[in-house]
Fold this protein.
Amino acid sequence: MSAAAGGETSLILDGITQRYGTALAVDTVTLDIKGGELVALLGPSGCGKTTLLRAVAGFLKPTEGRVIIGGQAVDHLPPNRRTVGIVFQNYALFPHMSVAENVAYGLAARGVGRAEQKARVAEMLALVRLEHLAERYPRAMSGGQQQRVALARALAVRPSILLLDEPFAALDKNLRLDMQIEIKRIQRSAGTTTLIVTHDQEEALSMADRVAVLNAGRLEQFAPPTDIYDRPETLFVNTFVGTANVLHGQLATGPDGGRAVALAGGGLLPTVTALPDGTRVAACLRPEHVAFETDGEGLDGVVEIGLPLGATLVHEIRLDGGARLKTAEARAAGAGPRSPGARVRLHPTEPERVGVFPDPRH
């Protein structure tokens, strides 16, 4: 297979559709992944991300569409001829083999000579920083160490594409963050095009060069993490990734001539949109994009609860129209939350921060 510059191999999913009987698991998904890129498939359970991973690996043949690795369609090739490495959720290490033997397994299966096996195992264990544990067995290792062994085994055969299937699910939160950083470092060092399946949005946003957000088998958005968070293209992306207040209303022209959402419960929420006046919309506003107003226009309400969360103050406000709005702001040293029952006025930090989408209820 031909590779991109620097030995990095591209991966294209071209109109992948997967049906199981009458059920549609994946609906015409197309992704063009650059050589050396780390892409996350993000979405809730049952959205189709594992199905796509299995299609790339060759464990299933899509109902429609093509898998193209390094410019060549591989749909006719079995898994062992696709130059794809996989790290499974449970790592799937051989318990009766040492670390070195586990890493060498794929090389031996491909008929690589012993001298080259030894050199390659040493190289991979150095990459994952486990040279000192070469003779240890998996049962005597931590979850994070086992994960690095599984990664070294997958990389040992020099795969064109590396697939990671929920690789951090078995790790506790603190170790998970350490391993996310470690795998990002290793992936960068190896320059291997990588596809990671996850339902954890923080994991996807922190690790990936680009994120593909899936919902019910459809691709909602494929973009860099900052665009996914700051400029979501659909209501699903806006509410699935991060936290968002959702308010319902109708587009109108505000008193200043700008665009606004006339909320169902009363009040105007300034926004920027090309949708016409009268369109019924769901307006999304992240808690950190809500500001307290001391003078001027805004949405009036009452503090229901306030929580000091480390460096952040979080409040839930009941607007006079009945809707509830969460806010998040930096906490000054010694400051506490506003008292329940306190009257407040709120407005978006910028009209551009208010995302509007056609209301799915209408």
User: Anything to note?
Assistant: The two ends are 50 Å apart (CA to CA). The chain has two domains: 5-238, 245-358.
